């Protein structure tokens, strides 16, 4: 079921960045790409688990840590999910006629700020 949910969200997002808000392609495709990179690393870890364990025993600890692809799965899918939530919030606030803006905390962490329309 989770896979079906992700597939549906991907199709919906592609539709939105293709037909509704094409200027959001960067955010939409970045969230998708990061999520898929985590998924790819997780599958590599599942398929080559024994080989990776043997490899980690032979290399310095810092390399062993960097090859913990299951951990990278959690980090990258979490980041990809966060960016997709930002994408969804941005599209929803646009639909509601607000003026969303993406700002970066400390120059690196994206957040959405928006101002409601003024009522006259």
From TrEMBL:
GO MF entries: metal ion binding; N-acylsphingosine amidohydrolase activity
Catalysed reaction, written as an equation: an N-acylsphinganine + H2O = sphinganine + a fatty acid; an N-acylsphing-4-enine + H2O = sphing-4-enine + a fatty acid; N-(9Z-octadecenoyl)-sphing-4-enine + H2O = sphing-4-enine + (9Z)-octadecenoate
GO biological process: ceramide metabolic process; phytosphingosine biosynthetic process; sphingosine biosynthetic process
Principal location: membrane
Any one of the GO CC terms: endoplasmic reticulum membrane
Compartment(s) of residence: Membrane
Named cofactor requirement(s): Zn(2+)
Residues engaged in binding Zn(2+): 70, 74
Pathway, per record: Sphingolipid metabolism; Lipid metabolism; sphingolipid metabolism
Keyword Lipid metabolism annotated: yes
Pfam families membership: Ceramidase
EC number(s) on file: 3.5.1.-
InterPro entries assigned: ACER (IPR008901)
Highest taxon in the source lineage: Eukaryota
Keyword vocabulary terms for this entry: Hydrolase, Lipid metabolism, Membrane, Metal-binding, Sphingolipid metabolism, Transmembrane, Transmembrane helix, Zinc
Family to which this protein belongs: Belongs to the alkaline ceramidase family.
Task performed by this protein: Hydrolyzes the sphingolipid ceramide into sphingosine and free fatty acid.
Protein name per UniProt: Alkaline ceramidase
């Amino acid at each position: 079921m989770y896979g079906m949910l992700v597939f549906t969200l991907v199709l919906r997002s592609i539709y939105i960045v293709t037909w509704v808000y094409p200027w959001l392609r960067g955010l939409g495709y970045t969230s998708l790409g990061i999520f898929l990179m985590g998924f790819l690393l997780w599958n590599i870890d599942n398929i080559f688990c024994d080989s990776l364990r043997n490899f980690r025993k032979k290399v310095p600890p810092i390399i062993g840590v960097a090859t913990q692809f299951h951990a990278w799965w959690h980090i990258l899918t979490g980041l990809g999910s966060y960016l997709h939530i930002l994408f969804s919030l941005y599209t929803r606030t646009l639909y509601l006629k607000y003026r969303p803006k993406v700002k970066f905390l400390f120059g690196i962490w994206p957040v959405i700020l928006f101002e409601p329309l003024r009522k006259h």
